Amino acid sequence: MKPAVRVALDADRRAELAPYVVTAMLPLGEKNLEVKIWIEDPTLADCMGARMVSHAPVAVRPIAATVSVVLLSGSPTNYELAIEEGVRRALNTRAQEVIAFKCMTMIEADLALRSATAISLPGRFEGMHGALLRLTYKNPVDVRSQTGTVALLGASGAGKSHIIAQFLADPEYEVAVLAEDWFVACADTGRAYSLPERRILLKHETVSMYSGAGPAPEPSYPDPADGTRALYDANRLFATGSNGGGAAVIDTLVVLRAEGSAAPHIRRLTAEDAQWICAGEYSGYYQANEQLLDGSSEVFTATQIDRRLANLLRLAERTSAFVFAGSRVINGHAALRTLLFSRSGPDSDGLRRSPAQISQDADGSQGMEH
Fold first, then answer.
1. pTM, whole model, 2 decimals?
2. With contact defined as beta carbons under 8 Å apart, do 67 and 52 qualify?
3. How does pLDDT run across 264-279, given as a tens digit for each residue?
4. Distance between CA atoms of 349 and 346, rounded to whole angstroms?
């Protein structure tokens, strides 16, 4: 783990280096976190401006703090800053500011945005790398609908997008995608918050997966510096919901673990079971290049990791929380569907009163233990 690189820019110098500014509001309870993104490259500024909703309905709330994200196109030596070559991000926790170097793509801008937000969040709030879904199960016999909010957490490649795609194609579920890749959650209340966005950043292959058998929508705003991703209109992609920002209370928390030494299985997450965070949840890319924990926030010290562990476990205690170990081979959609049905069906406590274990079969049916 590398030490943090810290640098401060005064207001005039910041405006000189990065003249384009995009502002967004992240709701956190009764207040907002104001996020100001200063951008050097005009093309990237156009992309970020097309993406963020600058004046969201929550903008009338008082501002708890202002976060600055400075996106610079060149390396530190281009700006005569006292930072060694090769540093990708520098942060100033006192000023709540992150400076990103060689930042030309929206995914790099995202990583800087998450880092800046993470160092500015109040103690019980934590950034989450994952998806937030509102799932409504409509029983054709019972006119009442069962609705719950599910958070899917895990490293890149663990299977979050596949589960979303399968729920989008499930005729018995109405799906609202509240956050597709990152959100903030309060460990005390279980309430999750996302930045209001007009358009969301997705890989083209993910969009094709979400579109199922139908034609994939055209990107509404390509990222000229990144041929694999573009901005897509959430309302066109998700017919029943979009990334409009706001808040939702998490009912079910699912942690996806792509790897695992044991046979693939599903287990209930307990406060004592912290190894799902400590061991294996770094993807190879983030561990080698970005110093991110699950792609959600910048982590430099053991204290920060301890805080994150405590917050995530606190959140797990107040939700129905599960670990899908070996998530690349588990049918996450089928497993989650079973868990949700057991929790919301006629015998809502059955999952707790009757611990069940279904062994992993050779034909691919999934192991489950509670």
1. 0.83
2. no
3. 888 887 766 655 555 4
4. 9
Residue the block writes with tokens 């057991």: 342
How many other CB atoms are found less than 10 A from the CB of residue 306? 10
Helices 42-51, 106-118: crossing angle, 10 deg rounding: 70
Considering the chain, what percentage of its residues have pLDDT values greater than 70?
76
User: What distance lies between CA 293 and its chain's CA centroid?
Assistant: 12
* CA distances, 256 to each of 166, 265, 280, 336 (Å): 16, 11, 11, 11
Rounded to whole angstroms, the Cα distance separating 177 from 153 reads 14
How many C-beta neighbours within 10 Å does residue 353 have?
Answer: 7
CB atoms within 10 A of CB 357: 11
The answer to whether 112 touches 139, Cβ cutoff 8 Å, is no
Alpha helices in 101-252 (DSSP H): 106-118, 160-168, 204-211, 234-237
Q: Mean pLDDT throughout 159-169?
A: 93
Which residue matches tokens 């209109």? 233
Beta bridge partners of 65: 33
Give CA–CA dist 230/144, Å, rounded. Answer: 38
Nearest partner of 358 among 369, 347, 345, judged by Cα: 369
List 89's β-bridge partners, or say none.
Answer: 100
Do 135 and 145 form a contact (C-beta atoms < 8 A)? no
Exposure string for 238-265, b = 16+ CB within 10 A, e = fewer:
beebbbbbbbbebbbbbbbbbebeeebb
Please choose, from the candidates 144, 130, 145, 252, the residue with its C-alpha nearest in 3D space to the C-alpha of residue 183. Answer: 130
How many C-beta atoms surround the C-beta of residue 268 within 10 A? 16
Please check whether residue 152 is in contact with residue 333, taking contact to mean a CB–CB distance below 8 angstroms: no
Query: What whole-number distance in Å separates Cα of residue 191 and Cα of residue 245?
Result: 13
Residue ranges of alpha helices (H) inside 71-203 are: 106-118, 160-168
Question: Tens digit of pLDDT for each residue in 290-314?
Answer: 444 445 556 556 777 778 778 888 8
Integer Cα distance of 302 and 63 in angstroms = 30
